[in-house]
Amino acid sequence: MKVVKFGGTSLASGKQIQKVLSIVISDPKRKIVVVSAPGKRFADDTKVTDLLIACARKKLRGEDATDWLEAVVERFASIAMDLEMSNDIVKEIRADLEERLRGYKGDPERFLDHMKAAGEDNNAKLIAAYFQERGIEARYVSPKEAGLIVTDEPGNARVLPESYKRLYSLREQSGIIIFPGFFGFSKNGDVVTFSRGGSDITGSILANGVKAELYENFTDVDAVYAVNPTFVSHPTEIQELTYREMRELSYAGFSVFHDEALIPAFRAGIPVNIKNTNNPSAPGTKIVNERETKNGPVVGIASDEGFCSIYIQKYLMNKEIGFGRKLLQILEDFGLSYEHIPSGIDDVTVILRENQLNQELEQAILHQIKEKLDADEVKIQHRLALIMLVGEGMRRNIGTTARAASALAKAGVNIEMVNQGSSEVSMMFAVKEEVERRAVQALYEEFFVSVPV
Amino acid sequence: MKVVKFGGTSLASGKQIQKVLSIVISDPKRKIVVVSAPGKRFADDTKVTDLLIACARKKLRGEDATDWLEAVVERFASIAMDLEMSNDIVKEIRADLEERLRGYKGDPERFLDHMKAAGEDNNAKLIAAYFQERGIEARYVSPKEAGLIVTDEPGNARVLPESYKRLYSLREQSGIIIFPGFFGFSKNGDVVTFSRGGSDITGSILANGVKAELYENFTDVDAVYAVNPTFVSHPTEIQELTYREMRELSYAGFSVFHDEALIPAFRAGIPVNIKNTNNPSAPGTKIVNERETKNGPVVGIASDEGFCSIYIQKYLMNKEIGFGRKLLQILEDFGLSYEHIPSGIDDVTVILRENQLNQELEQAILHQIKEKLDADEVKIQHRLALIMLVGEGMRRNIGTTARAASALAKAGVNIEMVNQGSSEVSMMFAVKEEVERRAVQALYEEFFVSVPV
């Protein structure tokens, strides 16, 4: 049995939903279909979920939200028309939306969650109806009926462990199950949504619950690329990567989806296949527990900018037990999270995301560090980029560091920082933002183009 | 004016003290001479300070310590005889030692300090007398007379800031001052010693106090070597290095002396010249505030073994604010100091000196980390060596990392860890202990032998 999830662009129009239908029926193992709300049809389009949020906010302000409600109905109506479906489904959706809009507003977050969930919920109903009209045995199953119980944290729900056992009984149902993504129900029976992109989470939970042999995640790209395609044109597609590699690659903001969504599938050891709705015959990228490392030490390169480093120097720092802990306490008191803290004998550097700071906060932090830790010198460097080289077994491959550092040197890139050896599957370089592109290109050239290893 | 300090081996015999005299009088700027206690004359010899400690401990146990006292007197008598001095000085030393031995024993640490200081103190008196007998204007000055006031921490005294002003008046004295190293006086007038090797500290304090143009530190090697001579025969001698470089080199236990002793001279910007008593015409190694970097990026390579790494893995670790701080708190609670903490997205590694642990403690720490931090995996790797590449401006030299990593790869050395970017003047590699020698040799070959840069 396979769990198949389709993202917003795969369901944005009738034409796309026709593709979805043929994909699902082309493999009898595709029994559980998790759907998102209709996404963008073109670059400037608005996602149905965003229309619903605008609608809910307007209503919460006490204003008339009919315009937004009509916009949502219009999107579904257009899909139904494309699919030559009867108007009944549109009426049903309108009625559902109007009822939600009349709902209790005393708890705004809960009201918002209720409205947001309408995109996936109604899309699932529409798609189930469409499958039925095409003579396919299919039915809509709600998370409530299936027993997908979550914590009562609106907008940030987490699945409760007892759900898995209940979801297992979905295996016994005949026909295809169309399941709305993005939300579950609290123990009290309230709709609670996952964090944004939460349909991936639903698919992953269901794959775990029914112990699927595969979780297929259909999106709008053929595969996960080995490098950001805005830096390198037509980069290598990754055929297979491990969960750990996926996670490291997503570290620097380079991800086709929510990597944390994978946790439930990961825990159950279920492989994930990222595929393209618009090119379903492409093999896509498979995310697995273990893989053979036959294509050299590096599987992918990720990078992101917007980091800064705070350098702290104090003579005899390394003799001072508790110095590092006190430094981290200061960061924690300011609510800051950090990426790395490379340290030397008399100095330590903290790398963190720049967007956590503004000028005032920055001054306050530098001042506190200087005062509380009695530091000799504290200085900040802005506009750094972090580059991650990721690959299983990289650590055991003598010479990977040398190849990477030499490639950067040849490209005239100065390495501000190297962090290697914590993770067994990655190596981090910090460079100035202005050379990020050049650095990534040089590393790609070294590990994916020049010499096959 | 120069402050000149002679170490124990430079003063171990009459013959050595004759060399000291010629060195001092060969430069009229050498006005202040700081002396250690007589050290070893040959490999199996015992230092006078160690004889004094044995003597004091025996006395404190309530036993007769005459044998040890005689051994100390004997060392001084042998020096006096070598120098053809009258027996008066030996009588004076014996009387001093007997008086110290009769001293108050209610505070054993203070008694011990009093005894330990006798080596330097009597040696200074002997040397002053010898200089006088040779017709040189010289006199013994005690730390009390000079105003070298320290904190009342027996065996670990720190200079009090007011001392510097008092010491400045030593400039006004005519002739050569012979000053005992290793101890000062508390505000109450008690003898208090510095930590072991403390004559270097005395010299450094005096250099600061009198605002010397140079602090000459005479020892028994021609220079600081660029690499451990047990790994590479006849290594390059370092002509000049900065305080920062010296400090980084001494990090991994590779040091001709107490690098912390330099702090007072360092604060006053006074250069230090490490020279050889047995080869005073050799230029030695100069430690300065700034230097021209004309000989390539690397000035020296230090290494030490006996490290271990604790690897901690936890899914979503980087989302958990406070994780790092809690980890460091656990280490602090166990009284452990760490060297480095490289971190990844879901993992962090702590590098620390292995000699802080035993099997029981190790199990307790691993257990606490697993429990308190709810880690998915905790494991320890033993027998690591750290190698430091040190050099000013290394960071701005594109390609240093590449050269180092390539040299290690060519030597078949797997890099377990790289830490670069905290300090601007060093780069750290961790390797398995069994390849330390090979790794150091490869790096030395790359930066000091093969290609001049």
Automatic annotation (TrEMBL), chains A, B:
One of its GO terms (cellular component) is cytosol. Substrate binds at T49, E120. The keyword Transcription regulation does not apply. It catalyses: L-aspartate + ATP = 4-phospho-L-aspartate + ADP. Pathway: Amino-acid biosynthesis; L-threonine biosynthesis; L-threonine from L-aspartate: step 1/5; Amino-acid biosynthesis; L-lysine biosynthesis via DAP pathway; (S)-tetrahydrodipicolinate from L-aspartate: step 1/4; Amino-acid biosynthesis; L-methionine biosynthesis via de novo pathway; L-homoserine from L-aspartate: step 1/3. ATP binds at K5, F6, G7, G8, T219, D220, Y225. Its EC number is 2.7.2.4. This is Aspartokinase. It comes from Bacillus smithii 7_3_47FAA. InterPro entries: AceGlu_kinase-like_sf (IPR036393), ACT-like_dom_sf (IPR045865), ACT_Aspartokinase (IPR054352), ACT_dom (IPR002912), AKIII_YclM_N (IPR035804), Asp/Glu/Uridylate_kinase (IPR001048), Asp_kin_monofn (IPR005260), Asp_kinase (IPR001341).
